[in-house]
Amino acid sequence: MQLDKLVVRFIFSSCCLLPSTLLARDIVVNPGEQIQDAVNQAQAGDSVRVMPGLYQETVYIDKDDVALIGVIIDGERAILDGGEKELHDGIIASGHGVNIEGFHVRNYRSNGITTQGANNYRIHNNIVENIHLYGIFPQFGKNGLVSQNITSNTSDAGIYVGISENVDIIANEAFDNALGIEAENSHNILIEANYVHDNAVGIPVVIFPGMQTKTSADVIVRNNMVINNNSTLFERSAMKTGRGITVTAVDRVTIEGNIIKGNSTCAVCINSLSSMGGAFPVDAAVEPEPDHTSITRNVFVNNGYQAVGLEVAGATIKNGADIVNLARGRGHCAAASQGATTLGLSRWADCDPQLSSAHVESYLLAEPVVSQALSRTQKAQLTYHAVCSGCHSYDHTMIGPPMIVIQALYKNNPQGLAAWIAEPTKKRPLEQFPAMPPQNYLSAELRLDLARYILNEVGAR
Amino acid sequence: MKIPYQKAHDIIRLVILCLIGVVCINVVAGNKDPAIELSDRCPPYFRLDDQNLCRLSTLYDLYPLANPKWGGYRVALPERRDGYTPQLIDLGRYLFFDPVLSADGDLSCAHCHHPDFGMSDGRARSIGRHGRGLGPARTGGEELPRGAPMLWNMAFQQSFFWDGRAATLEEQIQTVLETSSEMATSPEQVVASLNEVAVYRRLFFEVFGDEEVSFSQVLRALVAFETSLVSLNSPYDRYIHGDQQAINAQEKNGLHIFRSFASRCSQCHAPPLFTSGQLATTGIPGQPGKPYDVGAESVLDEASLRGAFKVPALRNIARTAPFMHAGQFASLSEAVSFYNNEPGHAVADRDDLTLHWHIVNPHLRADEIMDLVAFLNTLTDEAALPQTPEVVPSGLRVPR
C-alpha cells in the first residue's frame, strides 16, 4: 500500500483549463470561518488546512487538484456537522485529483463525503458517522483511493463505490451500517484489509440493471475481517441481514484470504439478479448470472447458524452455510481446503491451488487519467469554436459583434483582447447587444493563445 | 442567460451590415426565388475541418478521458454524430422548415419543433395532421398522445422518442413521416414531391452530385441538421469550467440538491448531458380520460418497464413548459415537486409499476424546491437556435 506516493502523484495530475500553479499554497481555516471561502480561493496545487473545531456547512470542490485537509491536533479534528441546518452532503467533489483527509463528518441528510465524476482522488483518514445514505460515496470516477477511514451508522452503505473503475478501498473500518462496503456496477475494484463488522451485510458486490454501465467485473475482496454482520439497526436491511460478503451477478469476483466469522446467514452468498426479486426492471443488456467467482484461502468460523430471508426455489431455509450459492453462471470455484460448509455448490469446481490474486497489488493506475493531448494552438482553436462561435461569427452580427470588427479593434493587441474577455465591460448599446459573459475561467495563457488565434487565424471559413 | 437570442436572430435577418467600409454582406436568407443558396459556414459550436466537414467543439473535450458514459461534471462527453458539410446541414434546415415533406403540404417538422418555442411547441400534446397555427395556439387536427421533445444534443443520444423506440435518428425521421396522424406520407411520396421542386433538385445536386433526389439523401440531410443543435454553454457550464460567479448562491444550492443522493436527480439526469440515456419508471400520472401510456413496456414487451420513459435531457428545460411526456406539469416547480412525494403517489395502481430504485421521497423543504428550480434555470443556452428561413424551396408557407 503506497498511500503516500499517491498524494505526490495526484498533485501533478489533471487537467485542463487552468494549469497547475507551481507555487502551492496552504490556506488555513479556523473555527468561525467558512471552509468554502478558502476552497473558493484555492487554486490547483493548494491545500486548504482546516483547524480542529465545529463547522456547519456543505463544502464543495468543483475544481481540480485541491487538497482539503482536516488538521488533527491532540486527537481533536475539524468536525463537519450537517445536523442543525439539515444539510445534504458534508463534502462534494467534482474536481479531479482532490485529496480529502482528516475530517470528522457527521449528521448529514445525504452523504458524508461524495465525489461525482472525479478521477485521481484520495479519501483518507476520515471519521464519518450518522449519515442518512452513504458515508463515503465516490461515483462515476476512475483511479481513486479510499483508505483508513472509519464509517458507522449510515442507513445505507458506509462506503459505496458506484459506477467506477480502478478504485482501491483499503484498511477502512465500517460498522453499524446497513451495508459495510459496497461496490456497484464497477470494474477493477480492490477491497483489501478492511475491518467490516456489525453491519447487516458486510461487503456487497453488485450490479444493478438500468444503469449507464451494463457489466461489472474484476473485483478482489482480500484479507478483510468480515465479522458478525447481523445488524437489524436499519429496517430496510433487517430482512437481509447476517451476510458477510455477497456477490450479485458480478463477474470475476475473487474472495481470498479473508477472516469471515459469525455472520448468521452466510459468510459468502452468491446471487443472480433474478434472486433479488421483482424490485428491478428487466434490462436485456445486463447478464443476470455471475460468472467466475473464486473463493480461496479464507478462514470461515461460525457462519450460517441462523439464516434470515434466505429462500431457495420459494422455500425458506432456516440454516445457512459458510458459502451459499443461489445463482447459476459459469466457471465458479471454491477451494475445498477451506473446509467451508456449503449450500448449492454441487456444480462448483475446487480451485486450482496455484490460483491467487497476488499479482494485482493495486488497481490504481500508474499514471493519472489525463485528457486528450492538444497543443496550445489546438486548445485555442477548440475554445474559439466551443465558446465564442456561439455568439460571434466572422463577418456578421450574431449575439455579439463580428470578429472582423474585433480584429480591427484589437489589431496587434492580443493582450488587450485577452484581458477584456476576462472582465468584459459594457460597450455597445444594450438594445443591440447584451453584456458578454466573463471568460475568466479560461486561464491567462489560454486567453492569450485564443486572442492570437482570433487576430491571426479567424477568417471567412 | 437572459439574452434575447430570438431578437438577435431577427436583427441578423434584417440588418445589412456595412462595416468599416470593407465588407457588405447581405444576410437575408433568400428572396422569393430560386436564389436560395446553401451556407458554406458551420453552425455555432462547429469548426470546419480541412475536408469541409463540421466538427463539434466543446470544452468538455478538454477533460480527462475516463468512461464518458458515466456522466459527471468536469468530464469528457461520449461519442457524437458529426462530420457533415455545412451545405448538407443547411439543406437539412430547409427540409426541416418545409411542409413539402407532409402529405397535405401544410405540416413541417418545425410546426412541432419551433425555434420560438425552444425547438418544441409549448403544448402538452402536439397537434399533427390537419392542424392550423403554431405553438399553444395551434388548433383543430389530430392530437398526438405525447408532447414534442426539444431537439438539443441529439448528436449524443443512443435512442429516440419518449419510450426510446427508435434506435437511430433515421428511424425516428421515417416514423414521423409515415405516421398517419403526423406527416402521413411515404418515402416514395417524399422523394416524388422533392423531385418536383427545381430548387431542391439543384440543391441536392450541389450536395450529392445526383440528378434525382433519393430518400437516403433526405434522411442524411435531416440528420445532419438535427445533430447540429448543440447546447453546452449555459451559465451552469461556465460554473463547471471554473467561473465561480457564473451562477448565484441559490442556484449553487440547487445544484447541490440536484446532485445529492437524497434527491438523486443527477443519478438519472446525469450531467453534462443531463440524461443517463436509460429508461426509468418514475410514476408520472396518466392523463384524465385517456388510457394509461405504458411507455417502453409495449416497445420491449416487458411488463417491468410499464410506464418507463427515456430520461429526458434537461438542457434548455426552462424554455419548454409544459413538462413530461404528455405535459402533465405546467411549471418547473410542479415538475420538481412531483419527486418530493411518496413513490407511486400519482398513479392509480402503483403495484403494476416497477418504479426505478432511484425514485425515493427526498423530503425536500419548500425553499429547496425553489433552489432546484433556480438551478434548472441555469441550463439555458440557445445560441445555436436555427434561423427560420424566409422562404423554403417549395414556396409553401414557412411556420412562423
Précis, in short:
Chain A has 461 residues and is mainly beta.
Number of helices of chain B: 12
Number of strands of chain A: 35
Which stretches of chain B of 5+ consecutive residues score pLDDT under 50?
1-32
Portion in helices of chain A: 10-25%
Strand content of chain B: under 5%
Inertia-based shape of chain B: globular
Query: What's the helix-strand series of chain B?
Result: HEEEEHHHHHHHHEHEHH
Largest interface: A-B, 85 and 81 residues
Q: Output mean pLDDT of chain B.
A: 91
Count of domains of chain A: 3
Structural class of the secondary structure composition of chain A? mainly beta
Instruction: Characterize the biggest β-sheet of chain B.
Output: 2 strands, antiparallel
What best-fitting shape of chain A do the alpha-carbon axes yield? Answer: elongated
Radius of gyration of chain A: 26 Å
* Sequence stretches where pLDDT stays below 50 over 5 or more residues of chain A: 1-16
Write the layout of secondary structure elements.
The complex is a heterodimer of chains A (461) and B (400).
Chain A: H1 3-11, E1 26-29, H2 35-41, E2 47-50, E3 53-55, E4 59-61, E5 67-70, E6 78-81, E7 89-93, E8 99-101, E9 103-108, E10 111-116, E11 121-124, E12 127-131, E13 134-139, E14 142-147, E15 150-154, E16 157-162, E17 165-170, E18 173-175, E19 179-184, E20 187-192, E21 195-197, E22 201-206, E23 217-222, E24 225-227, H3 235-238, E25 243-248, E26 251-256, E27 259-261, E28 266-271, E29 294-296, E30 299-301, E31 311-312, E32 315-316, E33 321-325, E34 333-334, E35 342-343, H4 376-386, H5 403-409, H6 414-422, H7 444-456
Parallel strand pairs in A: 1-2, 2-5, 3-6, 4-7, 5-8, 6-9, 7-10, 8-11, 9-12, 10-13, 11-14, 12-15, 13-16, 14-17, 15-18, 16-19, 17-20, 18-21, 19-22, 20-23, 21-24, 22-25, 23-26, 24-27, 25-28, 26-29, 27-30, 28-33, 29-34, 33-35
Antiparallel strand pairs in A: 31-32
Helix pairs in contact in A: 4-7, 6-7
Chain B: H1 5-14, E1 17-19, E2 23-25, E3 46-48, E4 54-56, H2 86-97, H3 169-178, H4 187-195, H5 198-208, H6 215-226, H7 235-241, H8 249-259, H9 265-268, E5 279-281, H10 296-300, E6 308-310, H11 332-339, H12 366-376
Antiparallel strand pairs in B: 1-2, 3-4, 5-6
